[in-house]
Design a protein that fits this description.
Elements (H helix, E strand, L loop, with lengths): L1 H7 L3 H14 L3 E6 L6 H12 L2 E4 H11 L2 H11 L6 H12 L7 E5 L5 H13 L6 E6 L2 H9 L1 E4 L4 E4 L26 H24 L3 E5 L4 H12 L2
Parallel strand pairs: 1-3, 1-4, 2-3, 4-7
Antiparallel strand pairs: 5-6
Helix pairs in contact: 3-10, 4-5, 4-6, 5-6, 6-7, 8-9
Keywords: Kinase, Nucleotide-binding, Transferase
Organism: Diacronema lutheri (Unicellular marine alga)
Family: Belongs to the adenylate kinase family.
Length: 242
């Protein structure tokens, strides 16, 4: 309350000027966050975003947003998807290009879910190089598959907000009810062991070459994602401070 009372006497122009100064002093960061489902990317991504004033770009969300907004690349993606085809790497990279041109991405971005292959990584690099920038950091959230299976198969989700809980590690106050709204929680259909192990197998097969690609460029680092979120956050911030 004391801090809020003090701000009441500060002119709005001065507050805005201070915020602008802090924004300008925040270093630019363009990074890729790699990790299997349940590794904690959804927890750490927003923390990194807020710390460095970045935009958080998740491939699926970007694709849906571009289609909904009717952007040039969104129209192309929509046409392909309606015909039952797979959206090409060129279209996805084009959607990323559209996204990072927005004001909220001025200080940089966190890419989540892309690139999945070396070919995609090369196309991303080419697009960024054409803009005179490049990827600064690639951080992998590493975690043992068995722990991951335990995490995911107990996950509960509040669909409207995306809030997540766990039957063992983060129980809701009322069983199967969202803490904020009291609405029902659900378990996603694909959050079962059989499906998850298939997804993990595909993830490891795809990710290994991408990790090698960025490691050769000196951009790669990893963190132990099995630790507590605050410990993982500290490890990530240490990497980004270098």
């Amino acid at each position: 309350m004391a801090a809020n009372s003090a701000l009441e006497n500060v002119p709005t122009a001065e507050i805005l000027a201070e915020l602008d100064r802090r924004l300008k002093e925040t270093p630019e960061k363009r990074m890729i966050l790699i990790g299997p489902p349940g590794s904690g990317k959804g927890t750490q991504g927003p923390i990194i975003k807020d710390r460095f004033c970045l935009c958080h770009l998740a491939t699926g969300d970007m694709l849906r947003a571009a289609v909904a907004a009717g952007t040039e690349m969104g129209k192309q993606a929509d046409k392909v998807m309606k015909s039952g085809g797979l959206v090409s790497d060129e279209i996805v990279v084009g959607i990323i290009r559209e996204a990072i041109d927005q004001p909220e991405c001025e200080k940089g971005f966190i890419l989540d879910g892309f690139p999945r292959t070396v070919e995609q990584a090369k196309k991303l690099d080419a697009m960024l190089e054409a803009k005179g920038v490049g990827v600064d950091n690639v951080i992998e959230m590493k975690i043992d598959d068995e722990l991951l299976v335990k995490r995911i198969t107990g996950r509960l989700v509040h669909p409207p907000s995306g809030r997540s809980y766990h039957t063992e590690f983060r129980k809701p106050r009322v069983p199967m009810r969202d803490d904020v709204t009291g609405e029902p929680l659900v378990q996603r259909a694909d959050d079962n062991e059989t499906t998850l192990r298939k997804r993990l197998g595909a993830f490891h097969e795809q990710t290994s070459p991408v990790v090698d690609y960025y490691a050769r460029k000196g951009l790669y680092a990893s963190v132990d994602a099995s630790q507590k979120p605050d410990t993982v956050k500290t490890a990530i911030m240490s990497i980004l401070a270098k």
